[in-house]
Amino acid sequence: MPEEYRHGRFGTARLLSRRNKWLLLKCIRETTVKANRGRRYVQVSRAFFQLRQIIEYKARRAGHAVMLIDPAYTSQTCPRCGMVRKTSRHKNAHLYVCANCGYRSNDDRVAAMNIRGIGYETLDQLPR
User: Fold this and answer.
1) Same domain (yes/no): 46, 86
2) Per-residue pLDDT tens over the stretch 47-92
3) Which Pfam families does the annotation name (predicted)?
4) Are 73 and 58 in contact (CB under 8 A)?
5) Rounded to an integer, what distance in angstroms lies between the CA atom of residue 78 and that of residue 101?
């Protein structure tokens, strides 16, 4: 692994773990492979998996918690009205348009907003 990439992941993990008591991460498995995507998908998911491992390590050392969120349907669910519809996400255009309420945004942003929402709901259920 080139040194600049390794340093970048450690620097990112260090920054995130210092600034946040709770870190919400999309659960990525290193072995996730889609046959029709080719080798590039494997390399990208492996890099994110390694970043997740580094973040978890740095957060534990800082006494912070990491919560892994199942990404299922997060890019198909409207963060405004909650409607789940596969056709609302336009993968090639990286666009999400809710068929119910008309909310429009980048599909990755919609997924991140939903992951954040799941994290907040989970944190609210924890005993204080």
Assistant:
1) no
2) 788 888 998 999 999 898 889 899 899 999 999 999 999 999 999 9
3) Cas12f1-like_TNB
4) no
5) 9
Q: pLDDT tens digit string along 2-20?
A: 554 556 778 888 877 787 7
In this structure, the answer to whether residues 7 and 63 fall within a common structural domain is yes
Structural domains in the chain (count): 2
Which is nearest to 53 in space by CA: 108, 21, 20, 6? 6
Residue 100 is part of which domain span?
70-128
Pairing of strands 95-97, 104-106: antiparallel
